[in-house]
Amino acid sequence: MIALLAAAALSAAQIHTIETSVRQSMAARQIPSVVVRVDVDGTNVYSKAFGYRDVANRAAADDRTRYQYGSITKQFTAAAVLALQDDGKLSIDDRIGKWLPAFAKFPVTIRQLLIHTGAVADFTEHPWYLKEYFTNPFVNYEPLLKWSASQPLEFAPGSKAQYDNAGYVILARIVEKASGKTFFDYLKDRFFSPLGMTSVAPQTFFRIEPDTANGYMFAAIPELQTIGLKSKSELFPAIAWNLEQADGAGFLVGDAADLQKWDDALLGHRVFTGAAEKLFYTAGRLGNGKPAYTGPENPARRPAEYCYGGVAKFTGAGYEAYGANGGTPGFLAFTATIPAQHIALTILTNHGADLDNSKLTNPVLAALVTK
Predict the structure, then answer these.
(1) What one-character-per-residue DSSP string does 43-79 give?
(2) For helices 12-29 and 358-368, angle between their N-to-C axes, nearest 10 degrees
(3) Which of 251, 208, 211 has its CA nearest to residue 69?
(4) Which of 156, 134, 319 is CA-nearest to residue 227?
(5) 169, 143 in Cβ contact below 8 A?
(6) Which of 307, 299, 305, 294 is nearest to 266 (CA)?
(7) Taking CA atoms, which of 117, 201, 320, 357 is between 20 and 30 Å from 301?
(8) What is the spatial distance between Cα 364 and Cα 41, in angstroms, rounded to a whole number?
(9) 10 Å Cβ neighbour count for 49?
(10) Cα 284 to chain centroid, rounded
(11) How crowded is the C-beta side of 65, counted as CA atoms within 13 Å?
């Protein structure tokens, strides 16, 4: 039986476990900074920043430091789609070609893109993209979506799940078509402003905003080694990715407090109610009825099931959670809720893309629940 955390504070033993595991992970993996926030029943019970947001200038991170969210962006994209369906502006069973004529030849639905079963060719998975586009500040998603539209589907839609960033860029375009607003303006008006999420914004390639972390990484990614980055053990500033290309799949930057506001609102039924809320947490299924899951197995040896809300349903040691990792060159992000215990957790770092984030996040999750 898992006991609910006391809303007033974490215990001394829990804090010791969290902070020891974070410091050990930082030392072992050369992580410059980590921010951890824990809320229970919508109340912040723990918030601490470790290390440096800017190593060269020895600028310390704090609990308002902004990090790249990466694929955590996907849950806001998915939430926008579900909100528009709730408002009668679209149906997730619409074919994507109804909204984007370039994709009209594909028998792919919005529903399938939400759970990564749509089979649209993903430009981010191709080495030519890393070499030619992702650092280019003058190229947005448009030519990349044209490429995806020109390629054959990678499998029969609905027959399997395969993580697809391009699918979420397509969903962002559908949000714009259905809402009549730019993608970020819709997110801001529908979610961010009402929830007081003031730090969240699209990445700005040419300008570093105040209190924004610099990203760092090792050259352990084979595609990056092909362009001259050889060392696997020396920490260096990450190559800047033009996240406008990732858009609905991963273009947001913000602090840990704002992700906690989002998670608290989800737990408090202030984002959705009724059918939309149920669908947000519903695990996707393939055409044959089997679970749609992507990514590695979790500590309970059960694969995470991808849900319509852009989060994964995963099981740890005695708990069931809904959350997501986000990874960009130089950043790893994690946010999750444990609804049965009313817990929200966010962990942000400025070392990413070539690390296993579970080595940092799993010990913290384990410390938050007691058997």
Answers:
(1) EEEEEEEEEEEETTTTEEP-TT-BEE-GGGHHHHHHH
(2) 180
(3) 251
(4) 134
(5) no
(6) 307
(7) 117
(8) 18
(9) 20
(10) 17
(11) 31
What count of other Cβ atoms lies within 10 Å of the Cβ of residue 78?
A: 27
Cα distances from 189 to residues 30, 60, 83, 141, in angstroms, run 39, 32, 12, 23
Strand partners, 51: 33
CA quadruple 324, 328, 329, 330: dihedral sign: negative
- Asked if residue 351 lies in contact with residue 217, where contact means CB atoms within 8 angstroms, the answer is yes
pTM: 0.92
Beta strands 303-306 and 312-315: pairing type?
Answer: antiparallel
Please give the structure tokens belonging to residue 367. Answer: 């410390």
What tokens were used for 318?
């005695």
Q: How many other C-beta atoms can be found within 10 angstroms of the C-beta atom of residue 249?
A: 27
Spatial contact of 197 and 260, defined as CB atoms under 8 Å apart: no
Structural tokens at position 223 = 């595609």
Cβ atoms of 4 and 346 within 8 Å: the answer is no
Alpha helices in the chain (DSSP H): 12-29, 73-86, 110-114, 127-132, 142-150, 165-179, 183-187, 222-225, 256-267, 274-280, 358-368
Structure tokens at 129: 């993209």
pLDDT tens-digit series, residues 114-161: 999 999 999 988 888 888 887 888 889 999 999 999 999 999 999 999
Contacts of 203 (CB under 8 A, 6+ apart): 68, 242, 243, 244, 251, 252, 253
Distance of alpha carbon 291 from alpha carbon 226, whole angstroms: 36
Name the residue among 8, 133, 70, 29 with its Cα closest to residue 333.
70
**Burial status of residue 311 (CB atoms within 10 A of its CB: 0-12, 13-18, 19 or more):** buried
- Are 346 and 362 spatial neighbours (Cβ–Cβ below 8 Å)? no
- Residue 264 carries which side chain, given as an amino acid letter? D
The CB-side HSE value for 229 (13 A sphere, CA atoms) comes to 19
**Token couple for 327:** 């990874």
On whether the CB atoms of residues 161 and 293 are closer than 8 A, the answer is: yes
| Unique residue bearing structure tokens 């809300």 | 309
